[in-house]
Each structure stands twice: as C-alpha cells, then as structure tokens.
Write a structure and sequence with these properties.
Length: about 400
C-alpha cells in the first residue's frame, strides 16, 4: 500500500490495525501484537516491536506508518510537585498536559473524584497481604505505590470565549486526533515510569480545549484508554462548558467518564457576561439536559464554579446556585480564580470563598474548594496557554 490512509498508528482500533496487517499480507493476530505494543508497552518507535517480523516492520515504515507518540518539548516543575508538559505533534502544533502527583483526597486539588476512602482501602490491602513482614517491607520499598492525576487536552487552544480563561486567548488552532489525546497520556506515563498495575492514575479531560466540540475523537480516545491502555472509565472525568446536544449523546454512551459542567454563574445574565456561549446554550437548556442525564449507581454530577472576586462570588450568588441545582445528585467544586496576564478578574479572598462554600453545604449540597495545583508554573486550571516566557524552563 503506497498511500496509507493513516500514517500514525496510535489512535487506531483493533479493527483498523487488523485491516493494516491484512493489507500488508500478515495474519490478523499481528494486529493484537501491534495493539499491545502501542497501548500496553507504550513503545515509541517501530524498531521496538521486536515480536513482529523484521520484514513487516520494514513494510510498515515504507508504507508511511509511524507510532505517533508526541514528543516532550518542555517540562515545567512546580514547587508542589505538579509538572506541566509541553507536548509536540508531527505538524509542529503542541498542547499542555499536566501531571499532578499524590492526590490530596481527590475532592480538592486535581479535579478527580475519588477520595480518601479508596486510598485507605489500597493501603490496607498492602499492609494485610499474605507476605511476611520482611517481604512486605521490601515490596513497599522497592515498588512504592503511587497515586496521580493527569489533566489532558482535547484541542489545540479553544474556540469557547470564556472571559476568565487563558486558553481562550489562543483561539482554536485545531482539534486533536484520538491518537494525540491518548498519546499525551502515554507520553506522561512513560516519563513518570508509571506501572498501571501498581500505580493509581486518574484522568481529567480538563486541559486545553472543549472536549465536546471534538466529540468523536474524544470518545474514541476514551474507548482506547479503557479497552487498550487499561484505565477504568470510573477514574476519568470530562469537563464541558455546556455543549447541550452533546450531553444527551454522552449520557447514551456505553463507556464514558464522569461528567463535570463548568457552570461558573447561577443566572443567564451573569453567565452570558463571563461565558458568551450561554447565548447559544442557555442555562435553562443546560439544566434541562442535566436533569435528563442518566447517572449511574452512586454517580454524581460535578459543577465547577470559578470564583471571580466581586463578580460571581457573593453569598447571594451561592443562594441562587442552591435554587438552580436543587434536586440534582451533584456536588460543586469551587475554584478561586487562577490569575494570569490579560485576565481582567481578581482572585477572591479566602473568607469569601469559604462563605460561598458554606451556603452550599448548609443547603445540603456537597461543595469542595479545589486546591490550586502548579500555579507558579501556570499549570493550574485556566492557565494553559504555552506560557514558556513566563516561567523558568527546567
Ligand atoms: N473546556 C472545558 C474543560 C477545560 S477548562 C471546560 O471549560 O469545562 C477546565 C476548568 O478550568 C473549567 O471548569 C473552567 O471553568 C476552569 N477555569 C478556566 N479558567 C480558569 C481560571 N483562570 N482560574 C480557575 N479556573 C479556570
Ligand atoms: Fe475553553 Fe474551557 Fe477555557 Fe472556556 S474554560 S475557554 S471552554 S478551555
């Protein structure tokens, strides 16, 4: 095949890999080997696929196929351990992907939803394994068990013009392919030497871009991550600014992450001011879609609410929030604005954040204040915008 339909193997399904193997005169089981090498072994070059016959590897190369793993262009390390990666793709575009080690109980820092309970369970099973005390200590020392969250981008830039977000300033450059979405995760897992059988990794699709405006590629990436990479869907959360028709489609997916919605304001007028997309998809339509959303057993919706000093952070806004989301099985993540150049808003005081939170919790709505991660390296929510000039490169 001199003119391959795909050039990058990463992002392809078992069916697509089977077609390629068969086109090149190989038995179908070669596709399984390709799948394993791409997604489980996380290899970055065809030369590493040594279980494949050399002639097949060469044919793949000659036919224009490559693995397609993004390259790490830059790495910024925060004082709190967060790492912001600048990952580059074949066409020279790049996105940011953030590694947040040691979740803090899940509710506060990283946007993922799992909490201390599960952490304790894991620690407990380590301690009470059938190993002798000596072996147990050895095991814990040689393979420290880790927990981390990766924040993944879905587009280069973003077309949704939220007034408080630095990614919005980039505009939309292009969608990412499914392989580029999966590739971000694989590149970071490789760099961090993560073993998925040992380490616990959560994914939040909350990086650059609006995942529901790149829906098909995003969902293809999710399926590959679950089925081929082996990360359970229960450890994934996607955040949307409220692309209403996609919410229903997403609810009908057999395999899907948990849903978070960036609400950020409790009424049409205020939300339209800070999120102009509200003109197209009103709060009323958004809430109607969310009331219809088929939550699974024990699943909750998450509302994200960026607090902008003096704009949407008053107790009266909190009371409006209570009225708006009453009756939904939901929790609220409060994020004090992460400031940045050209962002015309202020970060509210801790007192105002806590006052807002307590209105919600007193009304019986679980509300958490998200701890900012990596603010010093512009890795926190809303700060992803290729800010190489603002921090020192490590
Ligand atoms: N586009 C999607 C997902 C990425 S944004 C969405 O908007 O939901 C991830 C989260 O960061 C959103 O909840 C958004 O409201 C929040 N955010 C954006 N800019 C921010 C800022 N400057 N400070 C704090 N949070 C911000
Ligand atoms: Fe896009 Fe989300 Fe930023 Fe809004 S908050 S501009 S939707 S990335």
């Amino acid at each position: 095949m001199s003119n391959p339909q795909y050039t990058e193997l990463l992002g392809l399904t078992i069916q697509q890999l089977t077609e390629i193997a068969e086109d090149l005169g190989q038995p179908a089981y070669r596709a399984r080997q390709l799948l394993d090498g791409l997604y489980r072994q996380r290899w970055s070059a065809l030369e590493q696929f040594t279980m494949l016959p050399l002639a097949f590897r060469q044919r793949l190369g000659e036919s224009g196929y490559s693995v397609g793993l993004p390259s790490i262009e830059k790495k910024f390390v925060s004082a709190d351990g967060t790492i912001r990666y600048l990952l580059g793709f074949a066409d020279g575009q790049s996105v940011e992907t953030v590694w947040m080690p040691d979740g803090d109980g899940g509710e506060a820092g990283d946007g993922s939803e799992d909490g201390d309970a599960e952490l304790r369970e894991q620690a407990f099973s380590h301690q009470h394994s059938a190993l002798s005390p000596e072996t147990r200590n050895l095991k814990l020392e040689t393979s420290p068990w880790r927990r981390a969250t990766i924040c993944v981008s879905s587009q280069v830039g973003c077309a949704v013009e939220c007034a408080f977000c630095m990614t919005a300033l980039l505009g939309l450059k292009r969608n990412l392919s499914a392989g580029e979405i999966v590739g971000q995760i694989l590149a970071v897992l490789n760099d961090q030497q993560v073993e998925l059988q040992r380490d616990r990794v959560n994914l939040v699709f909350m990086g650059q871009g609006e995942p529901f405006l790149n829906y098909d590629n995003f969902m293809q990436a999710v399926r590959l991550l679950v089925e081929a990479v082996g990360i359970p869907e229960s450890r994934m959360t996607v955040s949307t600014s409220g692309i209403v028709p996609r919410i229903a489609a997403f609810g009908a997916e057999p395999v899907r992450p948990k849903l978070a919605v960036s609400l950020n304001a409790p009424n049409e007028a205020l939300r339209t001011e800070i999120m102009p997309i509200t003109k197209k998809w009103t709060i009323e339509k958004l809430m109607a879609a969310l009331r219809e959303f088929p939550l699974r057993n024990r699943e909750r919706l998450t509302f994200e609410y960026v607090l902008l000093g003096g704009v949407n952070d008053g107790v009266q806004h909190a009371r409006e929030m209570v009225d708006l989301i009453r009756g939904l099985r939901a929790k609220v993540n409060l994020i004090a604005l992460n400031s940045g150049p050209e962002i015309p808003f202020a970060t509210p005081s801790d007192e105002r954040v806590l006052a807002f939170q307590s209105v919600l919790t007193r009304a019986g709505i679980p509300a958490f204040v998200r701890r900012p991660r990596g603010r010093d390296i512009y890795a926190a929510c809303g700060q992803l915008k290729h800010t190489t000039e603002l921090v020192q490169v490590t």
